[in-house]
Amino acid sequence: MTRQERFSFSTGALYPYESETALKMIHDAGFPRAELMPQALSDCSEESTKKFEKTGILLGSIHYPLVLFGLLYNCQKTMIDDSRKYLKELLTMGQRLDCHVLVVHPHDPPSLKGYYNLLERPVIDNIRRHADICQEMGFTMAMENHPRTAPTAAALKDYIAVLDHPNIKPMVDTTEVKEADGDPVEFIRGVKTCHMHMSDFGTMKHLPAGEGNFDWKAIRQALDDQDYQGFYTLEPAYKFYMTDVENKLKKAHRFLEENFS
Q1: Sign of the C-alpha dihedral, residues 22, 24, 28, 33?
Q2: Tens digit of pLDDT for each residue in 92-104?
Q3: Which of 37, 40, 77, 244 is a Cys-bridge partner for 63, taking CB atoms 3.0 to 4.6 Å apart?
Q4: Which residues have C-beta within 8 Å of that of residue 235, sequence separation ≥ 6?
Q5: Which segments within 97-229 are labelled E, that is strand?
Q6: Domains of the chain with CATH codes
Q7: pLDDT at position 67
Q8: Is the dihedral of CA 153, 141, 54, 71 positive or negative?
Q9: Which residues contact 83 (CB under 8 A, 6 or more apart)?
């Protein structure tokens, strides 16, 4: 795919619109791809998938739903079984829309110490099994940096090393890097990123790209230097898209055209 064919925008930035509506708006703004952040269990249904297909947009990635991380990072056996069933439904929907990337976050270690085999080992084993399922279904599991659990490139690589699975790859969120007092350019240079979340940082976090203090030319150069082949996914906070959404989406697309074509 060309760079332009890898331009993408997150539906998470269009909360509280329904996923179908968000995908249609992203498509109409000129984006060929979207990152879907499911907001409802029914987003995996056959009915929803058909609606998504009719929007005309393809998925560059799926972000595991924030509201369901308690399902994924759970040590209770029945919930673990439910999480794997849900993952297969989620990825089956994604396959229909040409998606091959699943974004997840690092888990938080349990606050109660001394019970590794009961509280944390099942979570780590489940993440590995999810990575297996992703691989079986043609998806890469993209592990996102986080200011608390993986604040630096070295910490993200160490976390992935503990998981020890060939289908779990590092990815970079520019704002999350800055929240940990890091430099997105240096972070990118510190990992071989498989996926990008791009937003800006200034007086507020997760600003629309181009409206903060980041040096986007340097960010592009860092990606070019490692021959980045993933999607350029804009993921601003939804509070910036509560009004004038159509024009703001078009502005976001122009940002990518001007900086990443």
Answers
A1: positive
A2: 999 999 999 999 9
A3: 37
A4: 9, 10, 12, 13, 35, 173, 197, 198, 199, 206
A5: 101-104, 140-144, 168-173, 196-198
A6: 4-260 (3.20.20.150)
A7: 92
A8: negative
A9: 71, 72, 74, 126, 130
215-257: per-residue pLDDT in tens? Answer: 999 999 999 999 999 999 999 999 999 999 999 999 999 999 9
- Tokens coding 181: 């007092």
**Residue 153 is encoded by which pair of tokens?**
């490139």
Rounded to 5°, the CA angle 123-206-1 comes to 80
Residue keyed to tokens 């992935």:
160
DSSP for 93-129 reads: HHHHTT--EEEE-PPPPPSS-S-HHHHTHHHHHHHHH
Length, in residues, of the chain: 261
Tell if the pTM clears 0.85, that is, is over it.
yes
